[in-house]
Amino acid sequence: xxxxxxQLSGLQYICEGANLLKAASAGxxxxxxxxxxxxxxxEYINTYVVANDSNEDGPALTCAAYKxxxxxxxxxxxxxxxxxxxxSDGWTAxxxxxxxxxxxxxxxxxxxxxxxxxxxxxxxxxLMAAVSDGKADAxxxxxxxGAxxxxxxxxxxxxxxxxxxxxKKVELVxxxxxxxxxxxxxxxxxxxxxxxxxxxxxxxxxxxxxQKGKIKAALC
Length: 220
Fold this sequence. Notes:
CATH class: Mainly Alpha
CATH superfamily: Ankyrin repeat-containing domain
CATH architecture: Alpha Horseshoe
Radius of gyration: 21 Å
Distance between the termini: 85 Å
Number of helices: 12
Order of helices and strands: HHHHHHHHHHHH
Structural class: mainly alpha
Low-confidence stretches: none
Mean pLDDT: 88
Helix content: 55-70%
């Protein structure tokens, strides 16, 4: 007897696969279950149909994580979705959740042992992705769960701190420096906004003062 997926024609399967991704993006658990029960591969990636949303290329887990649908993420994980599966940009579900600032999904994925240091094609990690959204709670969560604060990507050799500085996200620059990011990783800060430069200069002055204090204490 043919399996459910074999009962669908090639074109039907492609269309139903795209509908699975749309359902995951929309947070429609019932429809996701229907598509999976009909035989659509849980790791289906849309390479045939132009999606209405650029984040609907799949797999379903990354679609749901990006849009913040924790119920669908849990459902897909329980149905065997690959927690490290990547979309067309090389992003995992954790990176997608981080980019949207979805702390509840970040926690769920890490509790299910997602690799916090997995990288996209350009070497960016979930922590770097979180900078794009700028939600401090998601960034603090990733740092609390062990993300490497001074890790550099493979494209521009930027850290998360540099990404925040480049994006003129002054509060995030302060957050990263307060959490221990190395202000000396960025030697030339002249290209940043004046507000960002002030935060860097203050951090460097405080670091220098602390170093002098340690030297003085050691000599006494």
